[in-house]
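Operator note (shift B, R.M.): manual run for UDENN domain-containing protein requested after the automated queue skipped it. Running by hand, logging everything below so the morning shift can see what happened. Input copied straight from the record, untouched. If output looks odd, do not overwrite the archive copy; leave it for review.
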Amino acid sequence: MSRSNRPISHHKVARNDFITAKRQSVLFSERFNEIVTKKQTSQQSLSCLCDSDESSGVNFKLKRQVTRAKLVHRSTLALYDKHLNAFYGCMESHLFDRALIINLVKRNEVNGLPYENIRCDYVPCIAYIYPERNNQHMNEGHSSRSDCPDLFIPDFTRAKVFRESDRWPGNEEFTLTLTDESGKRTFAYCVRHLIRRHELNNEQATSSKEGDLPEVFAIISPIHAPLFYFALARECVCYLHDNLKKLENLLNVVYRCTFPTDGSSLHVFEKAKDGFKRNIVIRGQGPTLGQSDCSGIVRRMGPEITVAIIAALLAEQRVIIAGGSVQCVCHAVQSVACLLHPFSWPYTLIPVLPDSLLEIVNSPTPYLMGLLRTNMYKLKSLAAKDKNQCTDDLTQDDLVIVDLDGGIFVPQLTELYTASESIDYKAKNAFALCEKLLVPRKLAVSLAIKLKEAIAVGEGPRADLLLQKAMLSWFAALIWPYKGCGFYAAFVAESNGDFESIRTSKAQLIASHSSKSARRFTEWFVETGIFREWIRRKVASAPEITSMIPDVAEDVVNQKFDEYVIAATLQSSQRRVTNIFTKAHNVVFRSYLAKKL
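Run finished. Output pasted below as returned.
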């Protein structure tokens, strides 16, 4: 296998590896039309209920949010679970789906056809695929598929050649969530790197007399295990920097390994011809929330805007974060995704949307995307459509556009203020969005206070750790009863066709809250795909079934979260005991006063 410079004819290739890469034909497929029809029918029935009783507006909105969460979860995650289980069934044969090298080549009349309306000197190209396409390693649908290189190098229109005297700022890691038209989801674990003065075919444009161009190495798998796969990707990049043949040898070894399910590590022992020995141990250890440099983004956007974005993600909205540069936008998207820990974003996630794929924003499914500020004007029609539509539409009223410095652009829920009151205006608009998404103002304000206290110490590891504690304690206070609700047994029972057990567990979790605000939030949150995916990972880490499902949970974060859950449980028990004694004291005191009178 060698790297080829043969151009790919993008305009005739069926891009069936991304729901976002097949343009409008996939984004509005027949499957989504059926889903939209079902949602609109549900909306009409709920609207009739609302008209009959205007006084129950809050309850109506809550029911509508629960309905939407169920619809989104069922339509976008059911086929993913089926595909994931199928992958687990054939795990004995390989560790991942495929590996790619995406680089930049000189634009010409052929490879430039998909980008005819875009000004650029280089275009992204898939230069290497492992294993070869004629190797049907998954199923009959995988051998003929083509990947979309624009997503892997989103800023190709601004490609910069790095000369020998130029400093490379460092490798960049990011994750793409890929979905095809049938609902199958995979994760691409990407490392953007620079190889200097490597000896390749003279026809290859990655290296030139003027300097070197960055490229991306990606490992693609349906398993969401970023710590493990990023560790593997880093090792692969190190081998690639030596030469492509060494990378191929490593991939040949690890590809047929099994995913470690019992807490073990991936061991690779290498003995070169010159006698050099190398023992590779991939434990899957990587950055955690406390080391992800989230504090800089929270300080820049402000605690209130950050809370609004978190609320939008928990409500499974379509979220776009805009900024001035690829680096800051990518950092913001990844930081916000990290703030969801111990939960994770199970839908489409694109750190920076390529200039050539802006129509992806029309996708009807939830997403988290980064966008360069220079492309904001191209979303004018989308923002206007969202502004003019019915506010009770379950399928469309779900777009949130945020600028890193300007705050929330869409939706605008409060009256405009003068420039001197811009900070106050941004905060009011943020809390108004939280209330619209049925995240009670009391909960939103409490989280904003926690975040403000965390970043008060400045930026850096200490602030990141405080942010981690703030998020974990906030989530723990909302779902702390989950351990006593039988979710583990209910999840296993559901996989066997018993759906009543999971409904009982959800109802028990909701009823466990004495706080009205917490009950309102939990009632719709337990129906989301985010909560289901988290429960699935928790079940996967249960000792009694680790042999059945690969352990893909972020153990460190979940362990810390469980510590906060235990603390929240104790605090809740103490409050209940205190309330009992207080009520008893009041009854005795009132009876005493009655006797005196």
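Quick read of the result: The domain at 1-55+93-260 is CATH 3.30.450.200 (Beta-Lactamase). The longest helix spans residues 555-596.
Leaving this for review. - R.M.
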